[in-house]
Automatic annotation (TrEMBL):
It holds the Pfam family AA_kinase. One of its GO terms (molecular function) is RNA binding. InterPro entries: AceGlu_kinase-like_sf, Asp/Glu/Uridylate_kinase, G5K_ProB, Glu/AcGlu_kinase, Glu_5kinase, Glu_5kinase/COase_Synthase, Glutamate_5-kinase_CS, PUA_sf. It comes from the Bacteria. Residues 9-238 form the Aspartate/glutamate/uridylate kinase domain. NCBIfam families: proB. GO terms for cellular component: cytosol. HAMAP family: ProB. Keywords: Amino-acid biosynthesis, ATP-binding, Cytoplasm, Kinase, Nucleotide-binding, Proline biosynthesis, Transferase. This is Glutamate 5-kinase. One of its GO terms (biological process) is amino acid biosynthetic process.
Length: 298
């Protein structure tokens, strides 16, 4: 059964490399219109849909005529401010013909680490979904500094999925799943159909980001999978570049499914699962050995 079949609440992450042409910097409008058809089908079935979309910096960069490559933080924030309004308008224009109302939701890392802000963002998203709205979520790149930002929308999408209790997170990628090695330079790399547990061996297979536009590579996708599955949400990685990628996924397109934990967690545990780890605990050699052996220190 395709992972989309029967899903009642779906979060879809769309990266810059899919949404924006990497050469011209222009929006891939035809692709976005095709994606809107997929979203409309899900809505017609009664499924709630949230789109987590990158692209504001890439679109703003093109409008401002900024060269490709790394930019100082203040230039990235300026590009995000210019591009975000175009990004929101693009989604509104493709979804409105299907009778779908969109909403722009900008978040920062602090919205998941602070309990009150977490509950506030969850209430807002739940209200929008209850009204039949499709929220378009992005990190607030205009104000987020390096210290208070996710840095990639894979983990942001996972945090959103856990926050709203989604049963499926779909990461539309430039590859069709998780492989034993980088298929670009490892011809015999094998794709996993299903991953039930993210082991150290699985983590060792992840590579770095390969796109000139996106910041997320397989390492960040594995981190997203850990967050999502710990919160009771399954996650899929599939290729997003063809038109109608969600329809293709439902019809059996190649993908990797990370299965969710059997028992969904309580609301507070969902919040903890969505938090970015920070701080450290120092233990001595004996305690480290006990922890490695699965023993309690108490």
């Amino acid at each position: 059964m395709a992972p989309l079949t029967g899903a009642r609440r779906v979060v879809v992450k769309i990266g810059s490399a899919l949404l924006v042409d990497r050469v011209s910097g222009a929006l891939r409008a035809d692709w976005l219109r095709a994606l809107s058809q997929d979203v409309a089908v899900l809505r017609q079935r009664g499924a709630d849909v949230i789109l987590v979309s990158s692209g504001s910096i890439a679109l703003g960069r093109a409008v401002l005529g900024l060269a490709r490559g790394d930019m100082p933080l203040e230039r990235s924030q300026a590009a995000a401010a210019v591009g975000q309004i175009r990004l929101a308008r693009a989604y509104e224009e493709v979804l409105a013909p299907h009778g779908i109302t969109t909403a722009q939701v900008l978040v920062t890392l602090e919205d998941s680490t602070d309990r009150r802000r977490y509950l506030n963002s969850r209430a807002t998203l739940e209200t929008l979904l209850g009204m039949g709205v499709v929220p378009i979520v992005n990190e607030n790149d205009t104000i987020a500094t390096d210290e208070i930002r996710y840095g990639d929308n894979d983990r942001l999408a996972a945090q959103v999925a856990v926050t709203v209790g989604a049963d499926l997170l779909v990461l539309l990628s430039d590859v069709d799943g998780f492989y034993t090695g980088n298929p670009a330079d490892t011809p015999d790399a094998r794709r996993f159909d299903v991953i039930d547990s993210i082991t150290p061996e699985i983590e060792a297979m992840a590579g770095d980001a390969g796109s000139g536009l996106s910041k997320g590579g397989m390492k960040t996708k594995l981190l997203a999978a850990k967050m999502a599955t710990a919160g009771g949400c399954a996650m899929v990685i599939t290729e997003g570049s063809p038109d109608n990628p969600l329809k293709l996924l439902e019809n059996g397109a190649a993908s990797t499914l990370f299965t969710a934990q059997v028992d969904p967690q309580a609301a507070r545990k969902r919040w903890i699962a969505a938090m970015k780890p920070r701080g450290e605990v120092v233990v001595d050699a004996g305690a480290a050995q006990a922890l490695a052996n699965g023993k309690s220190l108490l």
